[in-house]
Amino acid sequence: MTIEEILDVVKGEFKDKILSDEVKFDQPSISVPKDDNTEVILFLKEHGGLKFDHLADLCGVDYFKSRDIRYEVVYNLYSIKFKHRIRVKIQVPEDDMEVNSLTCIFKGADWHECECFDMFGIQFRGHPHLKRVFMPENWVGYPLKKDYPLKGIGVWEDHEKLLKKVESLSKFEIRRGG
Amino acid sequence: MKIQKLIRDVLLIEWFRGLSVTFKTMLVKPVTRLYPHVKRQPFPGFRGRQALVRDPEKLKERCIMCLRCKTVCPSNCISIEVGKDENNARVLKEYSIDATRCIYCAYCVEVCPVNALVLTEEYEYLGDKRSDLFFTKEKLLSDWDEFLTNYPGDSYFNKFWRPPGMPEKMLTPQKRNEKPIEIKKKNEEIAS
Amino acid sequence: MGSMEVKEIKEQILTTQNVCILPEVEDNLETKEMILNMGPQHPATHGVLRLVLRLDGEEIVGMEPHIGYLHRGIEKLMESKTYAQALPLTDRLDYISSPANNTAYAIAIEKLFGIEAPIRAKFIRTIFCEMARISSHLLWLATHALDIGAMTIFTYCFREREWLLDLFEMTVGARLLTNFARIGGVRCDISPEFVQGLRDFTKEFPSRVQEYETLLTKNPIWMERTIDIAQISGEDALSWGLTGPCLRGSGVDYDLRRDCPYDAYPYLKFHVPLGENGDVYDRYLCRMEELRQSNEMLKQLLDQLPEGEIISDDSPDFVIPTPPRQVEGAGSAASAFITLSKERKMINTGDLYSAVEVPKGELGVYVVSDGSGKPYRLRLRTPSFVHIAAMPALSVGHMVADIIAIIGSIDIVLGESDK
User: Fold this and answer.
1) Is A122's Cβ below 8 Å from some Cβ in C?
2) Which of A60, A138, B126, C204 could link A120 by a cystine bridge, Cβ 3.0 to 4.6 Å?
3) CB–CB of C86 and B22 under 8 A?
4) Which member of A53, A57, A66 has the closest CB to residue C353?
5) CA distance C114 to chain B (A)
6) B161 in helix, strand or coil?
7) How many alpha carbons lie under 13 Å from residue C16 in its C-beta half-sphere?
């Protein structure tokens, strides 16, 4: 199906729910309200003419000070049968960072959502085990936010404990700070 | 099919086929190189240890302090200090590369308009402490002299000063006219 | 002897000799699961991967993978560098097949900028991608076979891999982390020695693949250890997000080189192997066939290699156009703008997703650009991350020794998974 046909089918089904849609670099993308993400994506997966059955990517973006609503979660979908792509975006405001989880539709969304939580702090309702996946469990802060500095904030507490232990063994010279 | 499988299992046919492959290698010359008795010559253009080129005429570094290498380095490992001498001309006070941060991408070599920096083909270097791997300007220049004395050739031209295939309009005039650097033999130096 | 007499004897022994007699075993013995930590340092996990296994005897009841030991913050680092400076960082994702990662990034940014690489550059990039594919599959076979027990394959595969790495070094200067593609083309041209060396390789390689197959494919031990292990159906594999040979081993026909062709793939004829059962043996067969197909592709590429330029005129300037002398104090402000070439076109805004078939699966690049010279958000969707997430589903019900075979068959590299 062409891009216009895909957008027509989707807009025909969800008339008022689609907030905006655009086509950039030959790729369609639609923006839906935050709580309707599971409904829209389930429709996109099951519809006979669309069949978006491969969740290529799930990520978060932080639009700090460039937009009113700060965060955005982006779902990139691909159809293996018809070979077309679509992008679904939802806006997540800073004061209400809970989003429905997609693990009931795509099992592979589970670790992508853990990573989104780890890096931005967005919570996913209905996720079986939301935990940090890259950073250590007792890390404070969410690294990929725009106001988190590149070199980090202070020293991690477990690193401090390790340096103290090495100093107490007093065999090696310690050089602090990078 | 079952009888075939039975025959195969009893007579161990697959095992003998596999063993024939391995026994054939006993008759083939081994590909192992006995390092460190036999060393490998890297190909020209290999990205090894950094060095500053000593100009054969002026006998000092070629750097014009344009700071392009420092801007383009992805890991911020080059630090440059520019000062003024008594005639108020710009002079290079300090040029250092932190080899523990360098990722050996050779962007600095490509971007330098006067070919002042190279990544030589030297890969066997070490340091006992962190400070040994923080190369100051003098160390970089002496690395270049050391590299040239051991270089098995008459002249040196680094591949990334002028990558093959790069169109002329993307190179500065100085890079377009660059000639290979002549290496004076030790006998000539002693004689002169 | 009657039971009463046994009891009296037992009491006598207890009181006179202070000997402890074990109680009789009852029928319903309570057992607990054992938690075993296959720690970050392990020779068979192909990197720093921690697996916490819950075992009932030898059988796995539950498993939890922990990653993050090699996290370097590549996505955050890329936000502070210009597009051209961020290219060496993509080398370090899947460090075994770095030309493929560079190509993925270069293609995404070329689509964003709207520039087109010249045809010779596309062919050279494809040659390097296919060489990287062969090199990565050889390393996969070497380590997979070594872990299961076949040690000679390790040495044979590395012998072939040295040939390819020497060819990389001849062109680019580095064996492993090549940093070869540029936005708008490639970095330098290939020489006639390279072409001759690669032709010799393509003539020799099929006989070597036949050697590996003789040693492994019909070997009873290999078949015993790999058939019916970690079976996954096509729909489950798709739901978990698997891509590449892991998905094709289960019968789903998805290959980005054929479905969404990029670079020089429209000019090539090749066959995509598919498996049936979705177990470790089928994935092994898929990858062996891919080795042969990549060899054929290299032959076709060398025959059809066109003449021409290697880098497009619109390729972005390496360094900022403003005089860098003022860079010292005004570093970030001066480097915030990059203009394209002489016409001073500005960079497009918007977002873009572009995917490429790397040896491990599908590498997706999602880039959000705000018009400045640095990417606002660059997300790398790596196949190893998704494959490790699917491991618990693959390994429950099997034994501890099968985990080694499973880790080998899904072909993970921790640098790619941890970014």
Assistant:
1) no
2) A60
3) no
4) A57
5) 20
6) helix
7) 6
Distance from CA of B175 to the nearest CA of C (A): 16
Length of chain A: 178
pLDDT, tens only, C43-93:
888 889 999 999 988 899 999 999 999 999 999 999 888 888 889 999 899
pLDDT exceeds 70 at position B182: yes
Judge whether A119 and C79 are in contact, CB under 8 Å: no
CB A107 within 8 A of CB C239: yes
Cα B15 from Cα B6, distance rounded (Å): 14
Would you state the pLDDT for residue A173? 62
Residues 6+ apart with CB under 8 A from C17: none
Q: C148 and C225 in contact (C-beta within 8 Å)?
A: yes
Contact C375, C226 (CB under 8 A): no
Compare CB distances from C386 to A61, A87, A111 and report the shortest one's residue. Answer: A111
Q: Which residue of B has its CA nearest to C182?
A: B107
Instruction: Give residue B191's pLDDT band: very low, low, confident or very high (50, 70, 90).
Output: very low
Instruction: Please report the pLDDT score of residue C22 as a whole number.
Output: 55
Neighbors of chain B with 3 or more C-beta pairs under 8 Å: C
CA–CA distance, A10 with C275 (Å, rounded to integer)? 35
Model pTM score: 0.89
Instruction: Report the residue from C84, C188, C214 with minimal CB separation from B18.
Output: C214
Residue C152 has its nearest CB partner, among B22, B43, B74, at B22
Q: How far is C232 from chain A (nearest CA, A)?
A: 13
Chain length of chain B: 192
Least confident among C4-18, C75-89, C182-196:
C4-18
- Say what the pLDDT of residue B2 is: 81
The residue type at C51: L
Torsion angle, alpha carbons of C277, C281, C287, C289, to 10:
-80
Q: Which two tokens stand for residue C55?
A: 């075992």
Which pLDDT belongs to residue C340?
41
The answer to whether residue A70 neighbours chain C at the CB level (below 8 Å) is no
Q: Which two tokens stand for residue C228?
A: 């019916």
Residue-wise pLDDT tens digits, C335-367: 333 444 444 456 788 899 999 999 999 999 999
Q: Is B104 on the interface with C (CB under 8 A)?
A: yes
Chains with ≥3 CB–CB distances under 8 Å to A: C
- Tell me the β-bridge partners of C353: C366
Quote ipTM for the complex: 0.91
